[in-house]
């Protein structure tokens, strides 16, 4: 009986990679966003990311323990079909959240416009409330998925001893890959390319989540589609290192027709969402520029009018206003 199990290692590596990318993207955007230029506000936002991560992880671990212990004591086998359905739903929900994150990254960095305006300044969508919700949901999902995948190992007679070492190796691999990708993204000084890289990474992650989630429904028997192609060999296996590292971005060594349709339809939706945001932003920026120009022209006209008034005389508007005030005072008396 060994102490290392490759599937367990890849489970941890894949889920830790996704969680690290999500945390890294939020931290990078917070550090680069003008909305959090103030040091105290930035620290508060980064603290929200950290606390949300810890809370979500703790809740997921408690739930896993609460489920596995009763099942183990009762010696009941876990329904893999139910696990795949749960995973499929969670991946699709996460795909929607991450797609929204992909379109919000350029807005937070000032390349897409926000519709909301308050006191003359943009009110961006990166609030503490949204940070806490999105980080908590996605990190909880990643940790919970690890537990769902490992339930058969927890319930097996000899497999449990393989989890600690295999999991530790997988966590290290996932952390190194995720931190590396996040560091490369964060090290970009050009905000345009930073926004582009953040949107690309999160967008590809969204495509991978949606494709994988839909494929899970195919695997549980809700309808299968023909295999379009299959790459032979252990190296190309999406469930083994190294190719499992890019599985979160939509890679699969075996492509079914559903895989292909979901991959390209979600990719097109991603591009369409960014195109819509871009065109909408161009219109909003143009409108704001026109409003600003109009205000500046109006200020210049008033200034010129005041300068042209004979010395000792007030502009008509000011004079009328003073007459109105005087009449009100007379009426009060």
Mean pLDDT: 79
End-to-end separation:
102 Å
What share of residues are in beta strands?
Answer: under 5%
Q: Tell me about the largest β-sheet.
A: 2 strands, antiparallel
Rg over CA atoms: 28 Å
Helix-strand makeup class: mainly alpha
Shape: elongated
Supply the number of helical segments. Answer: 8
Number of structural domains: 1
Strand order of the largest sheet: 1-2
* Number of distinct beta strands: 4
Order of helices and strands: HHHEEHHHEEHH
CATH level 3 topology: Growth Hormone, Chain: A
Proportion of residues in helical segments = over 70%
CATH class: Mainly Alpha
CATH-scheme architecture: Up-down Bundle
Runs with pLDDT <50, length 5+?
117-124
Key phrases:
333 residues; Growth Hormone, Chain: A; two-stranded antiparallel ribbon; 8 helices; 4 strands; elongated
Map the helices and strands.
Blueprint: H1 6-32, H2 39-74, H3 80-108, E1 117-118, E2 121-122, H4 128-155, H5 163-186, H6 191-219, E3 227-230, E4 254-256, H7 257-308, H8 316-332
Antiparallel strand pairs: 1-2, 3-4
Helix pairs in contact: 1-2, 1-4, 1-5, 1-6, 2-4, 3-4, 3-6, 6-7
